[in-house]
Design brief:
Blueprint (H helix, E strand, L loop, with lengths): L2 H23 L14 H15 L3 E6 L9 E6 L4 E7 L6 H15 L7 E7 L8 H9 L7 E7 L2
Parallel strand pairs: 3-4, 4-5
Antiparallel strand pairs: 1-2, 2-3
Helix pairs in contact: 1-2, 3-4
Length: 157
């Protein structure tokens, strides 16, 4: 298998266990301080640590090329695998329509990134704000093209 296929397999495993790991961190011995997932930055912090298990070159917050008059930061670049990981965490103000809209813009931006042949989107929906996860996944993954494959994961499912 090529590096990208193996990398995607590792990512899928990390994502499917992410919620369980986040929950386990809430219960520490002797009530010690821990990481509580409250926002997207907390998701990124925990995910960064988990990515280090399988990937040697994890680059944070790289700038994406300008698109539609703006640019943004890429959450993680797995340079050797040519994979970009974009994270989102749902909340009262970031639900179905907004998640989809933001990710469509992100997909447009990442098409021209030299280290992105596979865009992997991880949406952490711990409070179950997204009503139609399957629909969003299908709509976004349809944006796959010969130069950019798009794969979307929601957790918990």
């Amino acid at each position: 298998m090529d590096k990208q296929t193996v990398g995607l397999s590792y990512l899928e495993n990390i994502f499917t266990k992410f919620h369980r790991v986040a929950q386990s961190l809430r219960h520490r011995h002797a009530s010690r301080e821990t990481l509580i997932i409250k926002d997207e930055y907390d998701v990124q912090d925990l995910l960064r640590g988990l990515l280090q298990i399988h990937f040697d070159d994890v680059r944070d917050e790289d700038y994406s090329p300008s698109y539609a008059g703006g640019n943004s930061r890429i959450d993680f670049v797995l340079k050797d695998e040519k994979i970009v990981v974009e994270t989102k965490m749902t909340n009262d103000h970031l639900k179905d329509k907004d998640i989809g809209s933001q990710l469509l813009i992100d997909i447009g931006r990442y098409r021209s990134h030299p280290d992105c042949r596979l865009l992997v989107v991880f949406v952490y929906d711990k409070s179950d704000y997204i009503m139609n996860k399957v629909g969003i996944i299908k709509d976004l993954e349809k944006m796959t093209s010969p130069d950019l494959k798009v794969k979307v994961f929601f957790e918990p499912k």
